[in-house]
Each structure stands twice: as structure tokens, then as C-alpha cells.
Amino acid sequence: MKSKNGNILYNTEAAPPGKQNNYETAYRKAADKLCQSAIEDIASRSGASVIAAGSSKALLLHFLEDEIHVAHPEISVSYHNKTQDVPMWAKILILHYLTRAAGTPARSEQITFKQMEGGLAYYPAFQRRSIIPLLDAYGFDPEKFMKAGTASGGHRSTLGEHALSFLAFPRVEVAFVLWKGDNEFPPAGSVIFDSSISDYLSTEDVAVLCNMIAVKILKSARIT
Which one, out of 10, 125, 144, 164, has a CA that is 20 to 30 A from the CA of 206? Predict the structure, then answer.
């Protein structure tokens, strides 16, 4: 998928050609790690709930606008509130969150992607995939961004006039902020996190998550 100005976004709806085996390997690795932890411990650290699943138990996890059912210890990932399959990339992201979750509270200390481990070196790619596409679409019309973002599950944030916060996981919140361009200054944007995010997702997973939210916002604008 590309923005109107050609900035490439991650393909977060299907594994790119030749990548299916890599995705399967990453999924199996994450599932093998998760099944080694007690389900109650996972729930306590991640903010998920433990629910009955027949004669066994499962995790019920908030993921953006969806509820996710994660069977345990025989790991499987499915939507709790709809019938279609969860995309493989999303399954991996969900399992990474559950395995990494440290249970630490929010620190009320705001950081950007550049401040994450390895974030500075990767920032140009992150910007191309998660910020510039939104600036291409909404940089001179941030009210349209607010409308599309709200329709995508975002909520107004106090971080700026045109800022939206998305609760990605129970303990991971992502805020997108846009500043309107004019004849003198180009539009600008940023993505802001609580510094505790590294206790729940790797820098690479944060990049994928932010791109996924950007795609949701862009798609929402086409149908609203």
C-alpha cells in the first residue's frame, strides 16, 4: 500500500510474497515462548482477562477496536467479536505483547520513536511509513485527520489541537499529533508514547503497530 505521494506503507494485511515462511516461524517462536508461562501470570502482566474456554482457559485481550481470544497452553489466536481470521502479522504482534509484557505501570513520561532503543537509526523508515502518509493526506486539513482518526477508534488527546490517542493494548497507548501546514511552514507530525512502552513491545513491533494505525486512519477517510 502507498500513500498518494508514493510513500510505502507496511503490508499489514497479508504476508508479502516470499515472507509467509518467515511469518510462520516468528509466530511459532512466539507461541512456544508464551505457552511456557502460566496463564494467570500472563494476564496479570498484560492486562488481559482469563476466561473459560470449554474445559480449558483462554486469554481475552483488547487490541485496538477488537477483542482477541488467545487459547492457552495450545496457543491459537482468533477474534472474540467477529468471524474472520486474524492476519498473521497481527497474531505475531499480539503474542509479542503477551510474552514481553512486564506489568509495569505507565510512567507519565512521554517519548517519541527516536528515543526508543535503535529508534534514531530507524526513524527515517518509521517516518516514511507512519507519519509522512498522514501528512500527505491531512497536513493541510487536520480536521479531516481528526474525523478519520476518530472513526478509526482514536480519542482526542490533550497533546495538541489535532492529536488523537489510540489504546492499542491494555497497557500500550499511542498518540498521533499533526500540526497544520501553511504558506510559511510545512505540515509536521509526531507519534508519542509513554516511556513504559518498551516494557511491552520492541522497537520493531512499535513501528509495525504505528503503521497499522496509520493505515486504519487512511482507510477510514475513504469511507467516511
Answer: 144
Cα–Cα distance, 167 to 171 (Å, whole number): 8
> How deeply is 184 buried, as exposed, middle or buried, from its count of CB atoms within 10 A (0-12, 13-18, 19+)?
exposed
Question: Which residue in the block uniquely carries the three cell numbers 508514493?
Answer: 6
Give me the domain span that covers residue 215: 110-223
Q: What letter does residue 143 receive in the DSSP assignment?
A: H
Asked whether the predicted pLDDT for residue 15 surpasses 90, the reply is: no
Which tens digit of pLDDT belongs to each residue from 186-224? 999 999 999 999 999 999 999 999 999 999 999 987 654
Q: How far apart are the first and last CA of the chain?
A: 19
Q: Is 208 left (phi over 0), alpha (psi -120 to 50) or beta?
A: alpha
SS3 assignment, position 41:
helix
| Domain assignment present for 71 | yes
Q: Is residue 15 part of a domain?
A: no
Are 168 and 197 a contacting pair, CB within 8 Å? no
In the block, residue with C-alpha cell 501470570: 41
Q: pTM (2 decimals)?
A: 0.90
